[in-house]
C-alpha cells in the first residue's frame, strides 16, 4: 500500500512551517508558561502549531487535527493529523538540540505516516506504510537485535515514571547491554535508524507517540503499550518500542514481571 503523494508533501510542508517558527525562537530569551499538567510551554510551541494548522487549513481542510497546543477538531474525519510542534520543550528551553516536531497521520485507527523532524540537527525522519523509513531521503531500518542482554535501551528521564513503573523499567534496563537517558523524541529516530534497540516510556500523550509509531513500524520495528496493544488516541501513555518482534516480546514480559 502506498500513500498519495500529496500526503507526504503536506507532512513536509507542516515540518517546514513548524521549523520556521521554532528556529526563530531557539536560543533566544523566552517566556515560559506552566500548563495544567505542569509541563512548560513557550511562545515557540504555540506559534509553530498555529503555522502547522494554517498549512492544513489550506491543503487538507476536511481532515481532523489532534494537536498539543491548540486542541482537537474533526476527530470523526477519515484522516486525522496528530501534531506536536516541539517535542522536548525542556530541551528547547535549555538550548539542547534534541527536540523535534512530530507528525502522525491516522487513517481509521492506523498510523499510515510518521515523521520526526529535528531542525537543529538537520535530520528529517519519515516512515510511510508500504514505502519504508528514511532519514533525509536515505533508507533506514531498525536493528535485528533479538536479546535483551544485547539491547541498547533509552528513555527520556527517570522523572517520567511513577514508582512502580520505574521499578519495572530499572529492572529491565539493567539487563540490557547499555542504557541511556535524555533523548526525548530522538530516541525513537535512533531506533528506526538501527542505533538503539529499545525505547520504554510512560506518561506520554498521543502527539508524543503516534508520529514515532509510524516511523518505527515503517522501519521494521514494533511499538505498542506495555500490554502489547496497538497505540491510538486513547492509549494509556505507556510505550514500548523495539527493533524486532522477539525483543518486544521479551521486553513486555520483563516489564510485566
UniProtKB/TrEMBL annotation:
Essential cofactor(s): Mg(2+)
Binding sites annotated in the UniProt record for Mg(2+): 68, 84, 86-87, 208
Pfam families per record: Inositol_P
Keyword flag Amino-acid biosynthesis: yes
Any single biological process term in GO: L-histidine biosynthetic process
Protein keywords: Amino-acid biosynthesis, Histidine biosynthesis, Hydrolase, Magnesium, Metal-binding
Catalytically driven reaction(s): L-histidinol phosphate + H2O = L-histidinol + phosphate
Associated pathway: Amino-acid biosynthesis; L-histidine biosynthesis; L-histidine from 5-phospho-alpha-D-ribose 1-diphosphate: step 8/9
Matches recorded under CDD domains: Bacterial_IMPase_like_1
Example of a GO MF term: metal ion binding
NCBIfam families, alphabetized: his_9_HisN
Protein name stated in the entry: Histidinol-phosphatase
